[in-house]
């Protein structure tokens, strides 16, 4: 059964990748907005923000990476909604394939597409002056956190892709996710925020994830931040995947 699921997921994933490659504007769009945000904050607003001895582009990059993922997973919701409402799923259900492979194919495609966009954003940051002396282990840890975060948000995107009544509704869920890093430590230190905003910023998932990535890239001790980031990512991933699979089974019943 596992071999059957893997084979079917691979076939459907290849189909979705072909669609992405035929319309590379989705990858470009996903990367352009975060790069534009990075340009604006680094070269226009960054001079007014005190981040100590840390160059602002180095301080900013982790938050921009999370915005990139939040922007990218909206296309997962869109592609899933379109598949559900153009009869493709019904056609697949009439074939001898593992039903859950359809969801896994969308999740895997989202992961690959977002990793490409993340690489483009890191390259842009390097051109803007970003530098890190982090070793291979730290970079692999950053990659691991970003993969977990992408999977968590992708499964979250599957839910509106399955349940939304319109394409706009399927995509709109990502707007709060894109906004969330702006109320965190991603752009300014939380110590500069008013009391209630500071409390929210310090206790929401983006701050823990941003601080963990920032510490790894700066080669600072990050054991507490990493554990908090992992708990948030895994918690969201498990809850979202469980709800999405349940919603899919009810729709397919």
Automatic annotation (TrEMBL):
GO cellular component labels: ATP-binding cassette (ABC) transporter complex
Pfam families for the chain: ABC2_membrane
Transmembrane segments: 27-49, 61-81, 102-130, 136-158, 170-188, 226-248
Localization, UniProt: Cell membrane; Membrane
One of the protein's GO biological processes: response to antibiotic
Occurrences of domain ABC transmembrane type-2 (ranges): 25-251
Membrane topology (UniProt): Multi-pass membrane protein
Keyword Secreted (UniProt): no
Keywords for the protein's UniProt record, in alphabetical order: Antibiotic resistance, Cell membrane, Membrane, Transmembrane, Transmembrane helix, Transport
Superkingdom per UniProt: Bacteria
InterPro entries reported in the protein's UniProt record: ABC2_TM, ABC2_TM_bact-type, ABC_2_transport, Nod_factor_ABC_transporter
GO molecular function, one term: ABC-type transporter activity
PANTHER family: NODULATION PROTEIN J (PTHR43229:SF2)
Family: Belongs to the ABC-2 integral membrane protein family.
Name the record gives this protein: Transport permease protein
Native source species: Leucobacter ruminantium
């Amino acid at each position: 059964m596992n071999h059957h699921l893997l084979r079917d997921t691979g076939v459907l994933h290849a189909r979705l990748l072909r669609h992405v490659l035929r319309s590379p504007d989705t990858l470009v769009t996903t990367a352009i907005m975060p790069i534009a945000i990075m340009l604006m904050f680094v070269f226009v607003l960054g001079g007014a923000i005190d981040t100590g001895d840390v160059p602002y582009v180095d301080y900013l990059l982790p938050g921009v990476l999370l915005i990139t993922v939040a922007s990218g997973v909206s296309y997962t919701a869109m592609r899933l909604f379109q598949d559900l409402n153009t009869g493709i799923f019904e056609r697949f259900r009439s074939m001898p394939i593992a039903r859950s492979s359809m969801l896994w194919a969308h999740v895997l495609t989202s992961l690959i597409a977002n990793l490409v966009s993340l690489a483009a954003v890191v390259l842009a940051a390097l051109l803007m002056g970003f530098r890190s002396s982090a070793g291979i282990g730290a970079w692999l840890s950053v990659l691991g956190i970003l993969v977990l975060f992408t999977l968590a948000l992708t499964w979250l995107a599957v839910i509106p892709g399955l349940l939304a009544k319109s394409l706009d509704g399927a995509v709109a869920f990502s707007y709060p996710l894109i906004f969330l890093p702006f109320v965190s430590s991603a752009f300014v230190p939380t110590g500069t925020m008013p009391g209630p905003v500071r409390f929210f910023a310090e206790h929401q998932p983006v701050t823990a994830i941003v601080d963990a990535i920032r510490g790894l890239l700066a080669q600072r001790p990050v054991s507490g931040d990493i554990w908090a980031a992992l708990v948030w990512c895994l918690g969201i991933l498990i809850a979202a995947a469980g709800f999405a699979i349940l919603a899919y089974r009810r729709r397919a019943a």
